[in-house]
Amino acid sequence: MSKQNQEGITVKKDENFSEWYQELMIKAKLACYTKVSGCIVFMPKSYAIWEKFVFETDKLFKKSGIQNVGFPMFIPESLLSKEEEHVKGFVPEVAWVTEAGNKKLSERLAVRPTSEAIIYDTLPNWIRSYNDLPLRLNLWNNVVRWEFKNPVPFFRTREFLWNEGHSAFASEKDARAEADDILGMYDKVCSEFMALPSVRGFKTDKEKFAGAVYSEKLHYMLPSGRVIEGPCFHYDGQNFAKAYDIKFINNKGEEDYVYQNTWAVSTRMLGTMFTIHSDDKGLVIPPKLANEKIVIVPILFDETKSKVLKKVEEIKKSLKIFNPILDVREDVSPGRKFNEWELKGIPLRIELGPKDLEKKSVVVVKRNTGEKISIKIASLKKEISKLLKTIQKELYDNANKLLKNSMKSSKDIKETIKFVKDKKMVSVPMCKGEKCEEGLKDKMPGLKTLFIDSEKKISGKEKCLVCSGKAEYFVYVGRTY
Amino acid sequence: MSKQNQEGITVKKDENFSEWYQELMIKAKLACYTKVSGCIVFMPKSYAIWEKFVFETDKLFKKSGIQNVGFPMFIPESLLSKEEEHVKGFVPEVAWVTEAGNKKLSERLAVRPTSEAIIYDTLPNWIRSYNDLPLRLNLWNNVVRWEFKNPVPFFRTREFLWNEGHSAFASEKDARAEADDILGMYDKVCSEFMALPSVRGFKTDKEKFAGAVYSEKLHYMLPSGRVIEGPCFHYDGQNFAKAYDIKFINNKGEEDYVYQNTWAVSTRMLGTMFTIHSDDKGLVIPPKLANEKIVIVPILFDETKSKVLKKVEEIKKSLKIFNPILDVREDVSPGRKFNEWELKGIPLRIELGPKDLEKKSVVVVKRNTGEKISIKIASLKKEISKLLKTIQKELYDNANKLLKNSMKSSKDIKETIKFVKDKKMVSVPMCKGEKCEEGLKDKMPGLKTLFIDSEKKISGKEKCLVCSGKAEYFVYVGRTY
Lengths: 481, 481
Prior knowledge:
The structure is a homodimer.
Chain A: H1 3-7, H2 17-27, E1 31-33, E2 40-42, H3 44-63, E3 67-68, E4 74-76, H4 77-80, H5 84-90, E5 95-100, E6 103-111, H6 116-122, E7 135-144, E8 159-169, H7 172-192, E9 199-202, E10 214-221, E11 226-237, H8 239-244, E12 247-249, E13 255-257, E14 259-266, H9 268-277, E15 294-298, H10 305-318, E16 325-326, H11 334-343, E17 348-352, H12 354-358, E18 361-366, E19 372-376, H13 380-405, E20 407-409, H14 413-421, E21 425-430, H15 434-443, E22 448-452, E23 473-480
Parallel strand pairs in A: 3-7, 11-23, 15-16, 15-17, 20-21
Antiparallel strand pairs in A: 1-2, 4-6, 5-6, 7-8, 8-14, 9-10, 10-11, 11-14, 12-13, 17-18, 18-19, 21-23, 22-23
Helix pairs in contact in A: 3-7
């Protein structure tokens, strides 16, 4: 195997998805491991993308009246235990601080897996009457959930970054109405910046958040045929308010418990974006999230070198708003440079050789399609701008095609399994019995409900896919990541 | 005591600084406590200021070529122990995770008190030759140091927010040259946005960072007469590189260890800023960091109410860039509103009553001085803009006066103690003996060296303030926070 090949990705995305992903992480310098098992380093490239994502999302949050806030990352065990379902859901994954300095602590402190317990115990001091509502708080922070499965960068790590939003309202109606605002903002950033279309859907009771009345999420289809949950919204009703005693005086002068929501998006979206857009050559990222949108590679020969170098310097300057990389290394061949920058996901490459110079043009290569276009230098800035928009749209359209093609429906378990094996999700009729939901995995390993199909209504005649009893709703089933 | 007074601060800053500060924190809604002892909540108001500070600092970092990155917050005990002085300095304050899920961990994990150990253990994979240098990485994150003293919001809490910069260079010269860049950026943001002037100075060997060759910091004088350390820069030489085996091939083809720096600024700067500018009425913050720069209070009488309300709505719209608050509450008197917004530190208040309306003017009140100015509505936007700049400058100038007036020099221990009791810091001649540095606290409780006086050179005749032996340098002594 030549050195050049070893630098590139050696596995095909279609043939061995998980090996391909691991190579992409390391070789495109997105993540690496440390001696802390199950945690990763967010390398500068991926961290910069997360920062942009946070910036854009946060801008919408602020515009919507949400306030950022900082809470301690430690939660005393007794506080975490106040809401019964919540604690059951999280305790198996909690990392505990038991010693500090050289002393044993009198009570274990959880490293936050999520901050409901610490925030909600404080809220009674912040809320007195309906005048203090709605209270819409948000945290951008790090949380820890001690997974025992193999770590996968961005998708499954013991520590990850996210936002956690926590809002309190004076009425159920107001609280529920926040779902469209929140999921709308998430979807806007994920589709406009990450070029990722989603399907929005309610979780079944079995799959909802520990402590919530209902959970609604945005779902994405990975090229491996597994469905992944992205941004989520949970309506908690008065469950936490009762556990943590968060009361207020309503506009009739009566005491009531607040109505709460929680909502989140995590660095898992980075993994989702990397897998959906990237290919066998390496990373592909949407231009809007690429820090460096262009690489300029001069083709150098001894006689014309100085002229070509002078011109690429000029081009670099004129394209400054795209933060271009100019690669003038002389000990690396153009071909190897092409491979390297393709691996690293620079959206556009500009090649300039002596012949191009004569024609006063350059060759521009699109990272996502490999398409080569000759463009006059005089109109380069305008054309680059257009091309970046085109790439952004093409990535979205492709992801959308993958998503739409993956959505099937069936009333037959054999056909359903065939679809799922073929990397689809399937809308099927089911009863609401937890036993049937549990029973899916006996029909096919890993098969489970994804979200309720809100487009299809039950006529009354459909039978549950599992028990053949009366079906109560259509629900998408498939495999998850 | 009337209800109005209880809402305001009841203690004078001059008379009981620490009580005053605690009241400021709670009543201006900057921080509050939770059931996790020693940690605080950064309430929306203070968190927003930190976000702005981070944004401005980060902009300069990025311009200077520094890359942000994310590392795990857990550090295995064996890794932390690699650099001997470093571990000695931090272990007494470390919080340890010893259990996760329901399992005991085979090795204790430190919650990062700082990230040298986890970053430097990874760097050998990132650095091969001088082509990979300089490598300038930065993290904005949360760290934990388990203080056993009483917590003071922003100044002393077990968890705090900060940046930690870690850079590696190919030569000592390059590494040392980074100090001016880094401390320059910190000073720019602290002086231009926080309106806080500083004195830059090297720490004595005894006071330097655990593991560093030298430490250089920016120092601020608090109104209590205590000196506080702000942003800091540590030149680590090859100390960590040798402990963590961070080698590279230099441009002569030889193997060498990298030369490293670390640098940081923390949320302690918020406390510094709050105490220096605020007063007996409550919070004062520099306009550049105030989210809401103006509050508009209409003076309402039955006959003229609708006219006045219409006008303040217009004014609010025209001043939108200052993010004004319009306080139209009718169940709260103007006087109480004035007190409330002064407590909360809104830089400018606009009052509009029927008489002002007749004169087509408003009364504008400066939060920092209480000065009242009548301004024509037609030129309001322009004048507000000027006034905000004036306030920003006045805050800086006042802080600078406090700082400059607090810097004394003396060769006599009695006079030195008198100065320090009078809230000053004093440049004194000393030998470099650690015993003499230790001995300062026997002369006066809490007396210690602050930083080396770089302006004054030893003539050879000066005697050490403590042992009367030959003095080797002038060094500032005083009390610290």
